[in-house]
């Protein structure tokens, strides 16, 4: 009988499979939230608001990339995932 996965395990598996999409969505939500927050502050020029939003989103993206690298390192160290992506077959990777 197969064990059912918890919701958290399913989310983690999706994030591991779609790392770049996850980081891109995090960047988009970060820049959107930062623009919304900066727009609520009066007395700032529009260019300064956009620059601050970009910097906040960039910091959030770097943190997400560091987290993705840590997960990837942990998975390879524990052997939790295959070494190669599913679309690459290890038989085809030998050099001739």
From TrEMBL:
The keyword Membrane applies. Residues 1-83 form the HIG1 domain. InterPro entries: Hypoxia_induced_domain, Rcf2. It is found in: Mitochondrion. Coiled coil: none annotated. Keywords: Membrane, Transmembrane, Transmembrane helix. Pfam families: HIG_1_N. GO terms for cellular component: mitochondrion. GO terms for biological process: mitochondrial respiratory chain complex IV assembly. The keyword Nucleotide-binding does not apply. Its main location: mitochondrion. It comes from the Eukaryota. This is HIG1 domain-containing protein. It comes from Brassica oleracea var. oleracea.
């Amino acid at each position: 009988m197969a064990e059912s996965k918890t919701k958290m395990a399913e989310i983690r598996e999706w994030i591991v499979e779609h790392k770049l999409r996850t980081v891109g969505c995090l960047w988009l939500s970060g820049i959107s939230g930062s623009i919304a927050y900066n727009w609520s502050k009066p007395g700032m020029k529009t260019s300064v608001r956009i620059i601050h939003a970009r910097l906040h989103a960039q910091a959030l993206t770097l943190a997400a990339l560091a987290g993705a690298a840590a997960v990837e390192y942990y998975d390879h160290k524990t052997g939790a995932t295959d070494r190669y992506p599913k679309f690459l077959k290890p038989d085809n990777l030998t050099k001739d």
